[in-house]
Write a structure and sequence with these properties.
This protein is α+β, with helices and mostly antiparallel strands. It has helices at 2-26, 80-92, 109-119, 152-165, 170-180; strands spanning 32-34, 39-43, 46-57, 62-65, 101-103, 124-130, 133-139, 185-188, 191-195, 201-206, 212-215, 218-219.
């Protein structure tokens, strides 16, 4: 689990920023999956290639990788990314990407998809809820505005949401985001300071375990 969390800390915030760009681009929409064409259709003029990652079950509280799902007939061409992630997981020593099924308290679809989206250089992931569970996809081929990033409140909101759901090192996750964005930062004692692309100053103070105490003097959650 430690290695999985390390990758989560590395990718979560930068992947969530990409998610924000994706859903800003999609706006209000209805999703229709075309299995034969391998396209996710959002309206008559917008259709993008997709890959199937896996499913969450609300009944068994488990995640099932798409390559291990014997109940559905997903074409092999839509399993390429999931199979590549299995190989990547074998190489990186991440059993969560190589065993067929996981309890959601070990790793859920959101955590796995945030990592997968960056590893596969996808346009983002999509969670399609259905009765009894959710299907998770990777989307490709969407031209997003890479200059559109989090402002300070957006970044704080996403970090707070992650902190409320997962146990991880907040300092490592925030520092990884700043490095990915090539934003210079300074560290003094237990504080991390940086100026975001918006020009806003961010100063985060951490406890010895790396969890945020305050950002700009305010508690995280």
């Amino acid at each position: 689990m430690t290695e999985l969390i390390s990758y989560f800390e590395r990718y979560a915030l930068i992947s969530l920023e990409k998610q924000a760009r994706l859903f800003s681009f999609l706006g209000e929409h209805i999703l229709e999956l075309d299995l034969d064409a391998g396209l996710a259709r959002f309206d008559s003029n917008r259709a993008y290639p997709y890959q199937v990652l896996g499913t969450e079950s609300e009944n068994s509280l488990t995640w099932l990788w798409a390559w291990a799902d014997e109940q559905t007939e997903v074409p092999e061409n839509l399993l390429v990314s999931a199979i590549q992630l299995r190989s990547w997981g074998e190489k990186e020593g991440l059993p969560e990407f190589t065993i067929p099924s996981l309890d959601l308290d070990r790793a859920d679809g959101t955590m796995l998809s945030l990592i997968a989206s960056e590893v596969c250089s996808a346009s983002g992931y999509y969670r399609d809820h259905y009765e009894g569970g959710s299907l998770f996809l990777l989307l490709d081929g969407i031209a997003l505005d890479n200059q559109q990033g989090f402002d300070r409140q957006g970044l704080i909101r996403q970090l707070a949401d992650l902190a409320s759901r997962y146990d991880f090192d907040h300092r490592s996750a925030l520092l990884s985001y700043l490095l990915a964005k090539e934003i210079p930062s300074t560290e003094t004692g237990g504080a991390l300071g940086a100026e975001l692309a918006t020009g806003e100053r961010l100063i985060a103070e951490f406890d010895p375990a790396g969890r945020v105490r305050t950002i700009n003097g305010e508690p995280l959650i």
